[in-house]
Amino acid sequence: MRVPRGLDRSTFRIVEGWPYVESLIEDLLDTRKGTCVLRRDYGSDLPAYVDAPGNAATILRMCAEVAVAADQIRDLETGEAVVRFRMARDVSADAHGNYALAFVFDYLPDGTEQIVDRRFYTGAPA
Q1: 57 and 49 in contact (C-beta within 8 Å)?
Q2: Domain ranges in the chain?
Q3: Which has more confidence, 7 or 120?
Q4: Is the separation of the CB atoms in 65 and 47 below 8 Å?
Q5: Stretch (H or E) spanning 23
Q6: What is the CATH number of domain 5-120?
Q7: Which residues contact 42 (CB under 8 A, 6 or more apart)?
Q8: Is residue 64 within 8 Å of 103, Cβ to Cβ?
Protein backbone atom coordinates (compact mmCIF):
# COMPACT_ATOMS: atom_id res chain seq x y z
CA MET A 1 0.00 0.00 0.00
CA ARG A 2 1.27 3.43 -0.89
CA VAL A 3 1.65 6.12 1.73
CA PRO A 4 -1.26 8.56 1.25
CA ARG A 5 -0.38 12.13 0.34
CA GLY A 6 -2.29 15.28 -0.49
CA LEU A 7 -2.93 18.85 0.58
CA ASP A 8 -3.28 19.78 4.22
CA ARG A 9 -6.59 21.60 4.58
CA SER A 10 -5.22 24.34 6.85
CA THR A 11 -1.78 25.08 5.33
CA PHE A 12 -2.39 23.96 1.71
CA ARG A 13 1.02 22.30 1.71
CA ILE A 14 1.61 18.77 0.52
CA VAL A 15 1.75 16.34 3.44
CA GLU A 16 1.96 12.59 3.47
CA GLY A 17 1.36 9.74 5.83
CA TRP A 18 -0.61 10.08 9.04
CA PRO A 19 -0.75 13.93 9.07
CA TYR A 20 -2.61 13.83 5.76
CA VAL A 21 -4.96 11.08 6.92
CA GLU A 22 -5.62 12.99 10.15
CA SER A 23 -6.61 16.08 8.15
CA LEU A 24 -8.93 13.87 6.06
CA ILE A 25 -10.52 12.49 9.23
CA GLU A 26 -11.06 16.02 10.58
CA ASP A 27 -12.65 17.05 7.28
CA LEU A 28 -14.90 13.98 7.20
CA LEU A 29 -16.06 14.53 10.77
CA ASP A 30 -16.75 18.24 10.21
CA THR A 31 -18.60 17.82 6.89
CA ARG A 32 -22.26 16.86 7.00
CA LYS A 33 -23.36 14.10 4.64
CA GLY A 34 -25.11 15.44 1.56
CA THR A 35 -23.36 18.83 1.51
CA CYS A 36 -20.69 17.99 -1.10
CA VAL A 37 -22.47 18.23 -4.45
CA LEU A 38 -20.41 15.67 -6.37
CA ARG A 39 -19.95 13.30 -3.43
CA ARG A 40 -23.25 13.13 -1.55
CA ASP A 41 -22.05 10.29 0.69
CA TYR A 42 -18.89 12.18 1.77
CA GLY A 43 -18.75 13.22 5.42
CA SER A 44 -20.61 12.17 8.53
CA ASP A 45 -23.67 13.10 10.55
CA LEU A 46 -21.49 13.75 13.60
CA PRO A 47 -22.34 17.50 13.71
CA ALA A 48 -25.97 16.54 14.40
CA TYR A 49 -25.00 15.02 17.77
CA VAL A 50 -23.55 18.17 19.29
CA ASP A 51 -26.78 19.10 21.10
CA ALA A 52 -27.74 15.52 21.92
CA PRO A 53 -27.85 14.42 25.55
CA GLY A 54 -24.56 13.10 26.92
CA ASN A 55 -25.57 9.50 27.46
CA ALA A 56 -24.11 6.15 26.44
CA ALA A 57 -26.49 5.69 23.50
CA THR A 58 -25.46 9.00 21.95
CA ILE A 59 -21.76 8.21 22.37
CA LEU A 60 -22.29 4.81 20.75
CA ARG A 61 -24.02 6.48 17.78
CA MET A 62 -21.17 8.99 17.51
CA CYS A 63 -18.60 6.18 17.44
CA ALA A 64 -20.60 4.47 14.68
CA GLU A 65 -20.52 7.70 12.65
CA VAL A 66 -16.75 7.93 13.08
CA ALA A 67 -16.31 4.30 11.98
CA VAL A 68 -18.40 4.85 8.84
CA ALA A 69 -16.55 8.09 8.04
CA ALA A 70 -13.13 6.45 8.51
CA ASP A 71 -14.12 3.70 6.09
CA GLN A 72 -14.35 6.35 3.36
CA ILE A 73 -10.58 6.92 3.46
CA ARG A 74 -9.26 4.60 0.78
CA ASP A 75 -6.21 4.24 -1.45
CA LEU A 76 -7.07 5.85 -4.78
CA GLU A 77 -5.38 3.16 -6.88
CA THR A 78 -6.31 -0.06 -5.10
CA GLY A 79 -9.42 0.95 -3.13
CA GLU A 80 -7.96 -0.56 0.05
CA ALA A 81 -8.82 1.01 3.40
CA VAL A 82 -6.12 3.28 4.85
CA VAL A 83 -7.44 3.49 8.43
CA ARG A 84 -9.66 1.36 10.63
CA PHE A 85 -11.58 2.78 13.57
CA ARG A 86 -10.85 0.70 16.65
CA MET A 87 -12.46 2.41 19.65
CA ALA A 88 -13.13 5.58 21.57
CA ARG A 89 -11.43 6.17 24.90
CA ASP A 90 -11.20 8.99 27.41
CA VAL A 91 -14.87 9.69 26.78
CA SER A 92 -16.59 12.40 28.77
CA ALA A 93 -20.00 13.94 28.21
CA ASP A 94 -22.45 16.01 30.17
CA ALA A 95 -26.18 16.73 30.02
CA HIS A 96 -25.55 19.99 28.12
CA GLY A 97 -24.15 18.23 25.05
CA ASN A 98 -20.44 18.90 25.68
CA TYR A 99 -18.28 15.98 24.60
CA ALA A 100 -14.62 15.05 24.71
CA LEU A 101 -13.54 11.86 22.97
CA ALA A 102 -10.27 10.30 21.87
CA PHE A 103 -10.77 8.14 18.78
CA VAL A 104 -8.24 5.34 18.24
CA PHE A 105 -7.46 4.27 14.68
CA ASP A 106 -5.25 1.60 13.14
CA TYR A 107 -3.15 3.28 10.44
CA LEU A 108 -2.86 0.37 8.01
CA PRO A 109 0.13 1.38 5.82
CA ASP A 110 2.55 0.96 8.73
CA GLY A 111 0.38 -0.84 11.30
CA THR A 112 0.59 1.83 14.01
CA GLU A 113 -2.07 2.99 16.43
CA GLN A 114 -3.03 6.65 16.05
CA ILE A 115 -5.25 8.81 18.27
CA VAL A 116 -7.41 11.77 17.27
CA ASP A 117 -8.76 13.93 20.11
CA ARG A 118 -12.07 15.68 19.47
CA ARG A 119 -13.99 18.09 21.62
CA PHE A 120 -17.51 19.25 20.88
CA TYR A 121 -18.96 22.22 22.74
CA THR A 122 -22.42 23.69 22.45
CA GLY A 123 -21.60 26.78 24.43
CA ALA A 124 -23.85 25.67 27.27
CA PRO A 125 -22.42 26.00 30.78
CA ALA A 126 -20.86 22.80 32.06
Answers
A1: no
A2: 5-120
A3: 7
A4: no
A5: helix 18-30
A6: 3.10.450.40
A7: 28, 31, 33, 36, 72
A8: no
